[in-house]
């Protein structure tokens, strides 16, 4: 920000500030200023006509004309309200010519004070440079009219006018500077909220305590569904408040604990569920808190995770024939061993899929077909992609077997055809799943798969949508440890 003009060096930021100020206050003040000015000038013209004062009314005619021009311009180009407001405020200085020698001193003082108040309001909703231009114009016009009508120069009046102009310019400078700094702070807070998921890269939620309502308000969140006790039938705020009520730390509700100034990692529990969360206090008075779900789980949670994996493996083996039992067992063991293996190497996706197709064709129950670019090669986490594709194939076979049983075609002993296609987009390598696939059933099994939930965000550019398209991320910046 320029320290003299108080303009932002970034033109986009300056435009954003102007638009925000127009919407918040400047537009309202301008139209109220115009409406009141039109009413007062028309009423003055009517009174002059009734009282036969043909000379003073021309100033009011001029001001009415200025209003008629400025209002349509402001409606058509709202961004220029700052200039139309400046012109309108400067033109109010001409009203000094409406007063004559017959005007009583008290009435003259009262009118002058009212005009000054209106003009000051326009100063403070204008930018600093615009306000300085208005102050200088008002000072010059006021002094010129005074000298012209009195036919004399009062040094004391001139000094007071200059001193008042300097002081009010200093106050406006400070006020506009604070206004712009507050705008910058709001922009930084918005950017901070947008960047939090990229910075933290863990499930979290940001809250603040409302003392009037005696409840926590949720400001932002990321992957809050990974917190225990999450219910998709409730809103995010209700889920967070439920979490704070259900879980305890040091035999106290987590919600009560957070009202104290605590920070760092703490243990929380609810019955057999035990895990750690990290608390960060932010803000001047530490009323905002960020609660991060720690990856370090307790033994009970690890045991639950292992039991879920073993249960999934047992299910897959039971679904397979005895002949292929060893293959699926090996796949399960490989998935367990390599779930945290982030080895990076070149991947020939077509070749990988052909190998999986050959294994399933030996079962004579499914017949996988793949088409697309056979030359596609990209760099990625090879072992994680292998695990992911194995799980996707398992889900596909389960769903198609279920669909064929419903159609009563399984008795024909013909292999079930499943078609896949691979191709390359801008920054991703895509696998198109069969369009005949039951989307709801696939997503249900897909989201519940424990292996996929662990590695999906690492290897995919985005979650699977209704188009049933898998987008592999090809931008791997480094080898993860």
From TrEMBL:
The chain crosses the membrane at residues 29-46, 58-75, 158-175. Keywords: Membrane, Transmembrane, Transmembrane helix. It comes from the Eukaryota. This is Transmembrane protein. It comes from Paramecium tetraurelia.
